[in-house]
Structures are given as structure tokens and as C-alpha cells.
Amino acid sequence: MKILLVDPFHGAAGDMIIGSLLDLGADEGLVRAAMRSVVGEPAFEHVDRAGIRAVRVRTHAKAAHRSLAEVLARLDESVAPKEAREMARRVFLRLHRAEESIHGAGAHFHEVGADDAVADIVGACTALLSLGVDGVAVLPVALGRGFATGAHGTFPIPAPATLAVLRDSDLQTSLGAEEQELCTPTGAALLAEFSTLKAADIGPAKISAIGYGAGTKDPHHTPNVLRTLLLTVDTAVSHDHVDLLETNVDDVTGEVLAYTLSRLMEEGARDASALPLVMKKGRNGYLVRVICRPERTDHLAAVMARELGTLGIRCFSTVHRFTIERTVEPVTVTIRGRSYTVDVKCGWFDGKISSFKAEFEQARACARDLDLPLREVSGIVEDAARQIFRERGVLDE
């Protein structure tokens, strides 16, 4: 397995995250195209930060004040991969919740709604996904202290929005002695979204790559960089704890149910489903079940109550979930004389691929392009994948 370990010993910002991941081996072409599509041509360069060579990222964007809807519309115009756009959307929703908890409903993004923040978030999500890691762990985030000036005037460091984001995450923090802002709201939201496991759960690992992303300032007494490490571990990281939320409903339409499941996924649920039930007095109903990280439980329970009108939600706290190693393998096929590359999601057990499936959105795009049934395109891709895995000797048969 490949694990990304983020070490924000001197804080984190969006540009530092992108730079560090590029230095680690992220796809520069994909990242550049994604950022260019929302702002303009970014600049990547190597600089020195207190003796450490690091990648500096510049977006050349101007400040702006936008609503959430305006920011998301700009995101939809990006050419970033679909999964990166979805991840970026979740990052913006984290920031929006943080802003509203401080300024009230209808808050504008101010600094985090500026073009450079949009580019940073889209670029960072694209960079992470291009690395194809199986998990991300984040070491304690240095925050800094003191005061700074922003759109609302002078504010204390850490910024209120940064603290609000971190409060709703499972990240650990440290203030440190630095009299400056080390972690920005954008940096905090990205790391909170990226984090999928605890560093203590990784176990023995080999360091296969190291990346450094440069901050804007260049103090001489300490390297203003974000460090990331790409680790290789021999066995799957299977320690995962989640909360399970459930409620029974018998008075909602199918449209409301579908909308609610979609909303729950957008708000950070790991999975959301509805199972048909026969309830008291023979009424037809549904069991709505949500799997989420413990820090998202209260928020998602509120979404369920608001959207479904339910009066009670059961919470099964800290459920241990067994997870197997997962990878994404690109498979190239030729259909009707045209070449397509489709990602195949693979599940591994004991060093063998025990299950695999063509990525739905990519297979659907091919099916529409070729005017073929989706199941036929998926079957062609999965047959090709099966042959490749057999030739590699990794298929569990």
C-alpha cells in the first residue's frame, strides 16, 4: 500500500500543499490544467527555504468576495477530474460551514473565496488523487499565534475559520511559538478532507519519496515548508472506526429520499443507503442508514432530521470497520476502433485482487460516446482487466 504522511510542522496553506505534492511526484500536467481552468496559468518553481529546496506555487490571482454558489459554479467550470471536483466541493462545504458558524447564514468566503483559493483547492485535490495513494495521515498541525489583518479587520491567530474547520475534524494541532499565521483556513480544510487514517495505525513502513512545498515568507530561522512523505507498507491498514446512524421513515417520497441520500454524501458521509421495510400496521417504509466519521455525526444527524422530518436517530458509536487494500488500475481498451482508458477499482486480499469493477462515470461516458449499452462497455473493460491481472499473476481465482 501507498500511504501519504503529511507533516505540517510549520503549518499548511493551499499553495504549500500543492507544491509539496508536486515535489512528491504528483502529475504536474493535470494539476497545471486544473488550476489554469479556474484562474490562469500558474507558476511552479524551486526555491530555497532555510536551506531546504522546495516547490513554490503562484496563482497570480486577485482577491474576490463570493458566495458559496458562485464558488461552486466556478468549480464546475474547471477541467479537473470529476473525483477531484467532488473532493474540492467537500472542501468548500467545510469552509462554508466554518464561515457560517462565525459570521452567520449567507456568509461570503472573502479570502477563501478568492480566485487563488479556488485554484489552490482544485489543484491540491487534483494533485492528491493523481498520486493514487491508499490513505492519508496527518501529523499535528502547527497553527501559530498573534494577530493578523483580513477582510473583517484584525483577527486573532489561529483565524476563527481555521479553528472552526479543525474543530469539526479529527486533526491534532499545536500552537507553537511563532508569532504569525502558520495554518490558513484553506490549508486546514484540505488536510481535514485528505485525512483518512491515524499516523499511529500505519506501522512499519518504507519511505519511498519526500516532498517539500514552500510558503510565501522566507524566514531565516526556520524552513517555511510543508513536508510530505510517501510511505510503502507491506500490509493493508485495516484499523478504521466509524459511526453508524439509522432512522426509520414511512412518510417521505422517493424523490425526497434520493435527494437526502445525495445531500448526506455531499456533507461528508462515507456511505448512505435506504433499505425497504414493512413497518407497524403494515405500512411500507425505509431504513435510512449512514456511515460517517465520528466528528461528522452531529452534523449528519441534523441533516437527516431536517430533510426527513424524523424525530429520532439511532447512533451506534465507534463501530470498527474492516477495510481491505484498494487501488485504481487504468485499463486501456479498443472498442469500435477507438481507444479508451477506464479506471478499474480493485480490492486486494493477501496480495491478490479479490474483486474489481470498472469506474461507473468513465464507463458511462464511453457508452454514451459509442452509443452502446453500459453493461457491454463495462464488460469489455473488466474482461480486459481480468486478462491483465492474470498475466501479472495477481488475480485471485
UniProtKB/TrEMBL annotation:
Which Pfam family, an example, fits this chain?
Answer: Ni_insertion
Keywords in alphabetical order, please.
Lyase, Nickel
Which InterPro entries does the record associate with it? Ni_insertion
The text of the family note is: Belongs to the LarC family.
The name under which this protein is listed is: Putative nickel insertion protein
